[in-house]
Amino acid sequence: MRSTIHPKVEIGHVHLRVAKLDRSIHFYTKWIGLQLLEQKGNLAVLTADGITRLIVLEESSDTVRKPPRTTGLYHFAILVPDRSTLARVLLHLLKVGYPLQGASDHQFSEAVYLADPDGNGIEIYADRPREQWEKAENGEYKGVTESLDVEGLLAEADHAPWTGLPPKTKMGHIHLHVAHMHEAEQFYHQGLGFDITIRMDNHALFVSAGGYHHHIGLNTWIGVGAPKPPENALGLRLFSIVFPHEKELEKAIESLKAIGAKVEWTGTEAVTVDPFGNRIQLRVQKA
């Protein structure tokens, strides 16, 4: 029997393999507006509030470029606290001339898209109030992609000097390329216990905890049966899922084991790997 995940579960951080650590630190601090929390050797930790890690960057000498059309990261999504913050982010990116890859209205959120120097996809978005999120007749959210009202959004910017992302910024969701939708559903829905919030035929699935529009997106847009990238490929090394307390973490571990997933317990956290090679750290929220 499937165990439903706790409603307060969220995505914690992403850990990326990068080609040049200094270049990536410059990008994420100067252009994105995060702060450098810690740098030690080949690792750097980035934060928005000076306490919570949002992105970990790792430079390794043996990394290789991620082959095209392989499973892994589609994008990770940085959630800003309100529409006016998103407006300031967009205005900043336009002023510095950093190339954008898109800007969309998804009905429940508004978003801009870009990529870091290693090609990792990034979404920066703001949610609309939850009472405005529309549902279809089947109870799932209406997943739409329409053009963003850029002029309307920029009108929300106060044109104050850019000072970076505010402290309440967090990792909102992560979106992955997968090889097979039925395996993705079994792992993330049956195993981890996320609820299905949007299903797009047989090519995309969105799941969440607590009625959120999605914490994890899954798609086969690069092709059904796509292979895994090499273990040392640039890009996503792991992402974390954060539980409110240890009892809920233990419940998720048992549910994953029930579907045959391997889970390694380190004493303070657990690590599992989905069927497509994506490493996931399962941990409890720090007090």
TrEMBL record:
PROSITE patterns for the chain: VOC (PS51819)
- Which Pfam families does this entry report, sorted A to Z? Glyoxalase (PF00903)
Q: Which domain of life is it from?
A: Bacteria
Q: Which InterPro entries match?
A: Glyas_Bleomycin-R_OHBP_Dase, Glyas_Fos-R_dOase_dom, VOC_core
Task: Give the originating organism.
Answer: Anoxybacteroides rupiense
- Residue ranges of domain VOC in the record: 10-127, 170-285
- Put simply, this protein is called VOC family protein
